[in-house]
Batch of 2 targets.
Target 1
Amino acid sequence: MNFNEQLEKKTGEVESVLAAYLPKPEGFQSKVLEAMAYAVSAGGKRLRPLLMRETAALFGETGEGLSCFMAAIEFIHTYSLIHDDLPALDNDDYRRGRKTTHVVYGEDIAVIAGDGLLNYAYETALRAFGRAVTIEDYQRTEQAMHILGRKAGVYGMVGGQCADLLAEKPETEVTEEMLLYIHKNKTAALIQAAMTIGAVLAGADEKAVAQIERCAENIGVAFQIQDDILDVTSTLEVLGKPTGSDEKNHKLTYVAMHGVEASKRQVEALSGEAVGILQAFPHRNAFLETLVEQLIYREK
Ligand code: FPP
Ligand code: MG
């Protein structure tokens, strides 16, 4: 199987995991459950669960709990997109080629659909404890829970989002340091969570987990710069969401600071370093390496 066939197969497997954990719309809470399912089933790249599973494969076997964390991280990612698109934040009507959740279900339901997904994510991850067989499984699950909470919260994605919102205010002077903080937290933190949780659940040692954390940081920052490049160079048809959104929101990005060409070189350098870290492990995962490299050529 070539890379694209493997990617399709593996993405399909992630879809099945998500479908298995997604709650069914029923009862008086039907509407919020429908909105949650609408947002999750919009079919993104499923990059975070994929990265989690492929990083785990780099270090060996995991217990049954891995799939709980794969679903949980995609639920958290999806909640963050629902909230990010809201009129109070980025005010975007399209995402992944479809109308955003608040456009379809209204702002009120979209807010609680995000809340619902965030809570349900932890409920789902906690199910991994029930799958633990050995004391090691149990301890690794506990460590994974800590990583998830930390990296998704105020010392991770939420913190990055806070700085990002401040950076949009005209009175804020955005420095390169602040911009890097935003990228490292808003985007890279969740990718770090995905990859380090995979490593931890597969029993990687502390040093290896630290290297994976560094690798994921590079991937996350490269990914975000690429996102900002596409916002300038792509189209609604290719990207599935409106372009020029950063300029509309007066957002100072790496691209605005350094230009498209320098930004592209930076993406390549960061991705190169990330792949270098992966290649240095005794066990190689060619699929994972290609997946990371593909971020350079990502067009949506
Ligand atoms: C696109 O991911 C998403 C990003 C580049 C990250 C943006 C981060 C936020 C919007 C954080 C918001 C935080 C809060 C607390 C509201 P992707 O290209 O993987 O999307 P896909 O899943 O659609 O493919
Ligand atoms: Mg946005």
Target 2
Amino acid sequence: MSLTVKILSAMAAGLILGLFFQGLSISPDNYFQTYILDGLIDSVGQIFIVSLKMVVVPLVFISLTCGAASLGASGSIGRLGGKTIGLYLLTTAIAVSSALLIALLVNPGMGASVDTVLSVNYVPKDPPSVKETLIAVFPDNPIAAMAEGKMLQVIVFALFLGLAISKSGENGKDILLSLDKINQVLMKLIMLIVSFAPYGVFALMVKLGLTVGVDEISKLAAYFFTVVGVLILHGLLVYPTLLFIFARVNPVVFLLKMREAVMVAFSTSSSGATMPVTMKTVEERLGVNAKVSSFAVPLGATINMDGTAIMQGVATVFIAQFYGITLSPDQFLMVILTATLASIGTAAVPGVGLVMLTMVLGQVGLPVEGIGLIIGVDRLLDMLRTAVNVTGDGTVATIVAATEGELDKERFDK
Ligand code: ASP
């Protein structure tokens, strides 16, 4: 069996089993629940996520330093950086715009009342200011940034260090060579962890099956399925079209090759934890040169969240309609702008997209407590939007590589 088939079977088996156990309504103090479901199965899932996360900081640091050093030497870092960030922002703006448009057609919040929606008391936190967010991108202590997993800070440090290496002559070349070797060892480490994926994914899916709220989904069906619909549209139509137009590659091959990363993203709900798998896929299967992928993938995993922006777009319309508030055209523009910026500030871990929704709602004066209306169905939506976030990272990396002549088309098509 290929790894993909194993992961897919593990997903299906885990979900079915989880739903089955949910149907049995096992009491929480039952031995099976305590030792097997909450004990063994949960540990396997958590260990899988933690093992993936274990590689993230070293991988981002080493590979981005290598990438910046070689790009710095060829003088193309500015152009490539601008193109990558520009494409990430553009795809996110497209994502939130189509989410708003479709939500306005579907009207998911019209006629919904607290009786039909399960409302949770949500106490919002104050969003950080733009100034604070900007300053926080620069690390005062890179080791602390690594220890705390502050990815944007690690990225900035790696970029500076890589540039310095490119300007350090022979010494720089020696360091680059060693870092490159460490990078290759890290890729092997990722392979080892990915071979454990079927077990990890199985455990995570059992947990999903056990906890997924079928009742919540049916009550919030209009909101839930609008988000799902726009996510599918973005993943299966917008990305393929962009790939076809700008990278001149077969989008079906792209989607097929991204499948492992998409499955890991779906089951872990974290584009950060999935990053090692995305990196491996983009380099080894899609044929994106390490120079581009080492820069585009960590950056994408940290700042590019199209799926999250889609949820935020639909949620904004839903909450506005629920409270009977009509948004003006400039408020819609504000939503596009803030959701795109919020996507940069969203940490690549489960559930943060919903927290950042506070910022979007606050900007247009909508009641932030409205988040309590949709929180009940967010777990499953988080999984789906993370899969889209990761597909977006792969799409932009492929387009940048293709337009820079850094895409190995033979490997892509193989
Ligand atoms: N879980 C998402 C991710 O890691 C972020 C979010 O939307 O909550 O990409």
